[in-house]
Write a structure and sequence with these properties.
Elements (H helix, E strand, L loop, with lengths): L1 H8 L7 E10 L16 H12 L5 E6 L7 E12 L6 H11 L4 E9 L9 E12 L12 E3 L5 H10 L2 E4 L14 E11 L13 E7 L6 H13 L5 H7 L17 E8 L1
Helix pairs in contact: 4-5
């Protein structure tokens, strides 16, 4: 047993600090978000618990990028693993052992060694989120973890026009919860469009569903869900295109209270320098 573990984790080699970038997927429906919290089941907490099991008596820490809120999922998330003393010498075997001990709603995709200059937060330069939704009829219950269900009729053509208004550099002060004094509210969005959903498919999905695809260098807490919430209100006829334009000036007399449900949101892509 000792020999098998040492072949994976390099036990007995010269002490040092090693860093790795790991890509993963997870279904966030039963988690209280990414970040470890006392008394809550979180993705980070589950990763740490599993690492403690497969790396007994090893010193390590992890640092995530693109932290997600409760019930939000990820198709391509990432975290950095800092491992003391000895390297992982068999990365394929490490991924296999990691996945064997993780719950079925979390999967490690790949691992790569990074140098000491790499920082997962500072080196992240592009994030893409996808918000999946359908409307008009009640969905199959199995859709709930990944597809938001709007029972009202929506004008999708108008929502597509509204989404384009968000492209560019704007003041997004009205698109975050609990705005803090030092929050960076000037944000750039490269892509914001509503498309047919070709990202996730299932036999129990409705015949037609949609995806809001939004890409930028960084987003504030709830920003994507509040943008989606405003687009839903446009689709229902409760807000106009002019309202969106005013909100990006911003008109501080305006206030948006509707945050789209978390379960439709997916972290779809993370790019690093």
């Amino acid at each position: 047993m000792y020999k098998a573990i040492s072949s994976i984790f390099g036990v007995g080699m010269k002490k040092h600090r090693y860093s790795y970038l790991l890509r993963l997927q997870y279904l966030g429906f039963r988690y209280s978000g990414w970040q470890k919290q006392p008394g809550q089941k979180t993705v980070e907490g589950m990763l740490v618990k599993t690492l403690k099991f497969i790396l007994p008596e090893r010193r390590f820490k992890i640092l995530g990028a693109g932290r997600t809120d409760a019930k939000v999922s990820a198709l391509n998330a990432a975290f950095e693993l800092f491992l003391e003393d000895n390297p992982i010498v068999n990365e394929e075997a490490f991924i296999t052992e990691f996945n064997r001990n993780l719950p079925p709603d979390i999967r490690i995709l790949e691992i790569a060694t990074v140098n000491e200059d790499f920082n997962i937060i500072h080196n992240a330069f592009m994030k893409e989120y996808v918000y999946l939704f359908s409307f008009g009829q009640k969905n199959h219950p199995f859709c709930a973890p990944m597809l938001a269900n709007i029972l009202d009729e929506l004008d999708v053509a108008l929502m597509k026009r509204a989404a384009q208004i968000f492209v560019g550099t704007h003041d997004f002060s009205l698109y975050t919860a609990r705005l803090q004094e030092k929050t960076k509210v000037i944000r750039n969005i490269n892509t914001c469009e509503i498309l047919d959903n070709n990202i996730l498919k299932a036999d129990f999905f409705p015949k037609r569903s949609y995806s809001l695809v939004i890409e930028g260098t960084g987003f504030m807490r709830y920003q994507v869900r509040m943008i989606m919430g405003v687009l839903i209100q446009v689709g229902k006829g409760e807000l106009t295109l002019s309202d969106i334009e005013r909100s990006l000036v911003p008109d501080l007399n305006m206030k948006f209270d509707y945050i789209a449900p978390a379960s439709g949101l997916l972290l779809h892509r993370l790019d690093f320098k």
